[in-house]
């Protein structure tokens, strides 16, 4: 059995996960990376995407994150997310309504700054939708 290590997923609101894991797949801005025990020290920025966790107990958990950064050390990994949600906790109907409303907000934006903010929010929601559809 592969060695385990400590993984923590933290958002500004709360600690979302703190567990012993075998591996964590992180959507780094330079590409997707798999972190395992004894990984070389790295700090990387994280883009919006899906985090896949393989726990030491043999289970898996998925989260969608909306950016942040990860501090990876040989004995553990801490991911500080701008925002994150457990895939299992997503209300799909609510998500579809939010995407519809966000698309309307992009169309109705009155200035470039408002349009940019609306497009960014829409992209976050589409990332979340992609994470949900994987499961």
Q: What's the helical proportion of residues?
A: 25-40%
Biggest β-sheet strands, sense, barrel: 9 strands, mixed
Q: Return the average pLDDT rounded to an integer.
A: 91
Please tell me the total number of domains.
Answer: 2
The first-level CATH class name of the largest domain: Mainly Beta
How many individual β-strands?
A: 9
Question: What is the fold named in CATH at topology level of the largest domain?
Answer: ATP Synthase, domain 1
Helix count equals 2
H/E element string?
Answer: EEEEEEEEEHH
Keyword list:
nine-stranded mixed β-sheet, 135 residues, ATP Synthase, domain 1, alpha+beta, 2 domains, 2 helices, single chain
Write the layout of secondary structure elements.
Elements: E1 5-10, E2 15-28, E3 31-36, E4 42-46, E5 49-55, E6 60-65, E7 68-73, E8 76-81, E9 84-86, H1 92-108, H2 112-134
Parallel strand pairs: 1-8
Antiparallel strand pairs: 1-2, 2-3, 2-5, 4-7, 5-6, 6-9, 7-8
Helix pairs in contact: 1-2
Model description:
With 135 residues, the chain is of the alpha+beta class. The protein has 2 domains: 5-87, ATP Synthase, domain 1 (Sandwich), CATH 2.60.15.10; 90-134. The chain is 30% helix and 44% strand. It contains 2 helices and 9 strands, in the order βββββββββαα. Strands 1, 2, 3, 4, 5, 6, 7, 8 and 9 form a 9-stranded mixed beta sheet that branches. Strand 2 and strand 3 (31-36) form a beta hairpin. Helix 1 (92-108) runs antiparallel to helix 2. 20% of the residues are buried.
Give a short overview:
This protein is of the alpha+beta class and 135 residues long.
């Amino acid at each position: 059995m592969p060695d385990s290590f400590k993984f923590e997923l933290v958002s500004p609101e709360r600690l979302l996960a703190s567990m012993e894991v075998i591996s964590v797949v992180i959507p780094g801005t330079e590409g997707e990376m798999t972190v395992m025990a004894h990984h070389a020290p790295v700090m990387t920025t994280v883009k919006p995407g899906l985090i896949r966790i393989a726990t030491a107990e043999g289970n898996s958990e998925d989260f969608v994150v909306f950016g942040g950064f990860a501090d990876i050390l040989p004995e553990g990994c801490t991911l500080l997310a701008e925002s994150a949600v457990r895939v299992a906790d997503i209300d799909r109907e609510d998500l579809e309504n939010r995407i519809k409303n966000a698309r309307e907000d992009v169309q109705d934006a009155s200035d470039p700054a408002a349009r940019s903010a609306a497009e960014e929010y829409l992209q976050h929601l589409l990332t979340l939708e992609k994470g949900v559809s994987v499961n």
